[in-house]
Specification:
Helix content is 28%, strand content 45%. The chain is α+β, with helices and mostly antiparallel strands.
């Protein structure tokens, strides 16, 4: 596994365009989620894959986070809970 290049598959890319107040130009920020699938080692063991989350501006990567599958699951559950709370609050506001 050490001599093989890491292969990541793009799973999601979210782009956000905005007007830069200082320059007046349209700029772009983005978030990308990539998956490195699990793989078998030469000895027959199965290694977990990983999730890479990259944040960028225009064409440059500004930050990247490499998450274990456990960390990615915790992030997923946190995002899901935040969305559920948001939707419940929004429905409550519409009812009032």
């Amino acid at each position: 596994m050490g001599d093989r290049p890491q292969v990541f598959e793009r799973r999601l890319q979210i782009k956000h365009f905005f007007e830069d107040r200082q320059t007046g130009q349209t700029r772009r920020t983005w978030l990308e989620v990539q998956l490195q699938p699990p793989e078998t080692t030469p000895e027959g063991w199965v290694n977990d894959g990983r999730i890479r989350i990259s944040l960028g501006e225009d064409r440059d990567v500004k930050k990247a986070f490499l998450l274990s599958i456990d960390e990615a699951c915790r992030l997923f559950k946190c995002l899901e809970a935040a969305v559920m709370d948001h939707e419940a609050r929004k429905a409550e506001l519409w009812r009032s």
